[in-house]
Amino acid sequence: MCESDxxxxxxxxxxxxxxxxxxxxxxxxxxGSCPRTILIGVEAAIEMMGSxxxxxxxxxxxxKCSRCNRRIEGVRxxxxxxxxxxxxxxxxxxxxxxxxxxx
Length: 103
Ligand SMILES: [Zn+2]
Description:
21% helix; 4-stranded antiparallel sheet; alpha+beta; 4 strands; binds zinc ion; 103 residues
């Protein structure tokens, strides 16, 4: 899905590989000790890490639960599964444009 060197030293994918899909993809992870879930857009994640060369694994190590200050676990890529037409009509999901905390 990306040029060579898409995998970082920790074996997870670099954030910039998701940049072409930023309108419909976001990262999701959950707190290990409370029901809180953190959703973060691709662009917001790159901004937080300061570089698109940062990896999904590094993002996971950076994210913390704002309630219990525990690390956010199992950060993975998530997809807005609406059709492109629908996304155009209804607009992007808020989680693709910044950070959304729920739970
Ligand atoms: Zn928590």
